[in-house]
Amino acid sequence: MAQLVPEIVGLAVTPAAIVACLLLLGSHRPYRNVAVFGGTVLVVYAALGAVALVLGRSTGTQETADPGTVRGWIGLVVGVLFLVGGVLALLRRRAAAGTPAPAPGAEPEAPGWARRLAHPTTRVLVISAVVLALVNPNVAIFLSGLGMVLTADVAVAGQVLGVLVLVVASVLDYVIPTAFYAATGLPGRRRLTAMRSWLVQHDRAIGAAVLLVFGTLFTIRGLAQVLG
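Below the sequence we write its predicted structure tokens.
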């Protein structure tokens, strides 16, 4: 389980998911909206995990001749993809550097998908959650974690536990801000609003940093497993 810590942390610190949660917490029915959105994400990753677990058990993935090498290649591929994505994000950020900054005191404009979450219908919540769950670096992190679980030499109960841990980690971006929102009252909610503004303003830089950090981590770990 300790080997899954990078994947767990990566799944729990997704800037886009945190922004989506904070936007929903500022909507008319915050708890209901976060529950529908986060619940949809949970279902998507639970389905991916269940399919991978069934396929992995049926093909005997855990009995591969060199599971460490398999895990290493999975992590290496994910790491390289993240590094490429981080570099591209930096280049896009540099290209957008000439965009006029918002007026002092004004909240930066959120992306189109995020603006639609200000007053969402159930249909918008479900569709947006499915898109965000699948078109997101978290998918690669989740698959990397699944690869480690399915090639581990443990009983089926251990693999099920590993998949459940990854699935729960995929919705921590919604659980933690919502718990903070519920527990801290108006002052805490104001801090969440300020955090949301900061995250939207610096979304490209944060996204690039996350990709580069986890890309470096996964690449180094993958190389160590492949060469070791």
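Residues 2-227 form one domain.
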